[in-house]
Automatic annotation (TrEMBL):
<dbReference type="InterPro" id="IPR036291">
    <property type="entry name" value="NAD(P)-bd_dom_sf"/>
</dbReference>
<dbReference type="GO" id="GO:0008202">
    <property type="term" value="P:steroid metabolic process"/>
</dbReference>
<dbReference type="InterPro" id="IPR020904">
    <property type="entry name" value="Sc_DH/Rdtase_CS"/>
</dbReference>
<dbReference type="GO" id="GO:0016491">
    <property type="term" value="F:oxidoreductase activity"/>
</dbReference>
<dbReference type="Pfam" id="PF00106">
    <property type="entry name" value="adh_short"/>
</dbReference>
<protein>
    <submittedName>
        <fullName>Retinol dehydrogenase 16-like</fullName>
    </submittedName>
</protein>
<comment type="similarity">
    <text>Belongs to the short-chain dehydrogenases/reductases (SDR) family.</text>
</comment>
<dbReference type="InterPro" id="IPR002347">
    <property type="entry name" value="SDR_fam"/>
</dbReference>
<keyword id="KW-0560">Oxidoreductase</keyword>
């Protein structure tokens, strides 16, 4: 009886705490129109949608785009407050040039927010398929580029006691076997974000991580996925190709196309909250599959987590032709 009473009291306390937290998180920062934000990866996807959304809210947005076409599209679609900047996060020279543009514009006010959104998916396939060059290409954008941008703009963030929003992934919490370079990069983003949050607290800079599942963006277009998988497979030696077989390749393609959350606006709203809420969360888990499957799996002991990953998503671990029939 005492145990039940204790559990009941715990449930009440937890319910009150949850209600209070949700109410508190609805409060928005005052004078948003006075704040400046830099977003990377604004050509398409989450970054493009967020740039448009913050422009509508009246914030001053510096939208980093890889291409001239991305710059032109945003310049035409948004107000004069939004300033598109051609910016390649994998190039330190490009990052430095963007820094000078932003620094000259914001002056002593500094930068209130930095959203590290730029990212690429990279090659897909078994862990031994991608080359070291493939890993390097993905890391240069998703992790090293993110670190470079953050370190470069920290002086401006210190001036305003600003916020850093890093886009990680569900793949940064639970490993996806056929997304080797991408998964490694997102685990790195998680680690760097934890280091940054703890190290910058004394300067008043807060760090917030967005952890989306699979959403419909430019990097998840089916044709792009198909080219990535088959391109990686065709680069293998004849012996390795025979070892895996075309059926393995097709299972990866079909598995990657299954499930997922279609509307990316949920991720954009999480980013907006991280930037504009008076009391933002440190982590935003976005997507039903991520919230109720992949994150809980990451909490389990390793062997148990591996087992449940195979049960929940058998398409994640297709069997190579050479291994079929083995016990």
């Amino acid at each position: 009886m005492e145990v039940l009473s204790g559990l009941g009291l715990l449930a009440v306390v937890w319910g009150l705490y949850t209600a209070w937290t949700r109410w508190r998180q609805k409060e928005i920062l005052p004078r948003l129109v006075e704040k400046s934000v830099l977003i990377t990866g604004c050509d398409t996807g989450f970054g493009n949608l967020l740039a448009r959304r913050l422009d509508q809210l009246g914030l001053r947005v510096f939208a980093g785009c890889l291409t001239e076409a991305g710059v032109a599209e945003l310049r035409q679609a948004c107000s004069e407050r939004l300033q598109p900047i051609q910016m390649d996060v994998s190039s330190s020279d490009s990052v430095q040039q963007a820094f000078l543009v932003v620094k000259d514009s914001v002056g002593s006010k500094g930068l209130c927010g930095l959203v590290n959104n730029a990212g690429i998916l990279g090659p897909l396939g078994s862990v031994e398929w991608p080359s070291i060059a493939d890993y390097q290409a993905v890391l240069n954008v998703n992790l090293l580029g993110l670190i470079d941008v953050t370190k470069t703009f920290l002086p401006l963030l210190k001036k305003s006691r600003g916020r850093v929003v890093n886009v990680a992934s569900a793949a940064g919490r639970t490993a996806v076997p056929f997304q080797g370079p991408y998964t490694v990069s997102k685990y790195g983003v998680e680690g760097f974000s934890d280091i940054l949050r703890r190290g910058m607290r004394c300067f008043g800079i807060t760090v917030h991580v967005i952890e989306p599942g699979k959403f419909s963006t430019g990097i998840t277009v089916k044709e792009t996925i198909r080219r990535s998988i088959y391109g990686c497979f065709e680069s293998l030696s004849p012996e390795t190709k025979e070892e895996y077989g075309l059926e393995y390749v097709e299972e990866i393609r079909e598995g990657f196309s299954e499930g997922g959350d279609d509307d990316p606006i949920a991720v954009v709203m999480a980013m907006e909250h991280a930037l504009c809420a008076a009391h933002p969360k440190s982590r935003y888990v976005v997507g039903q599959g991520t919230r109720y499957a992949w994150v809980p799996i990451s909490w389990l002991p390793t062997d148990l987590g591996d087992y449940f990953a195979r049960v929940v998503a058998p398409w994640m671990t297709p069997v190579p032709a050479a291994c079929k029939g083995r016990k």
